[in-house]
C-alpha cells in the first residue's frame, strides 16, 4: 500500500510541477509579447525619425540652392553697379 501512496504523491507532485511550468510558460509568453510590442513601437519611432531626417535634408538642400542663387544674383548686381559712375 505504501508504494501506491508514494506513487500517488509522486504523480501529484509531477502534476503540480507541470501546472507551475504552464504558469511560468504563460508569463514568459506574456513578457515576450510585451518585448515584441516595444520593439514594434521603437521601429515605428525609428521610421518617423528617418522620415523627419529626410525632410530636413531636403530642406537643407533647398536652402543651399537658394543661397547659391542669391550669391549669383549678388554678383550680377555688383557687376551692374560697377558700371555706374558717380
Chart the SSEs and their pairings.
Blueprint: H1 2-83
Describe this structure in words.
The chain is 95% helix and 0% strand. The longest helix has 82 residues, at 2-83. The protein is rod-shaped, with a radius of gyration of 37 Å. It has 86 residues and is mostly helical. This is Methyl-accepting transducer domain-containing protein.
Short description:
It comes from Bacillus cereus VD154. This protein is an all-alpha fold and 86 residues long.
Which structural traits does this protein have?
86 residues, Methyl-accepting transducer domain-containing protein, mainly alpha
Largest sheet: none
Whole-angstrom Rg: 37 Å
Question: What's the total count of β strands?
Answer: 0
Q: Helix tally?
A: 1
End-to-end separation = 127 Å
Category from helices, strands and their pairing: mainly alpha
Shape: rod-shaped
- Give the H and E element order: H
Poorly predicted ranges: none
The fraction of residues assigned to DSSP E strands is under 5%
**How much is the average pLDDT?**
95
Helix content: over 70%
Protein name: Methyl-accepting transducer domain-containing protein
Organism: Bacillus cereus VD154
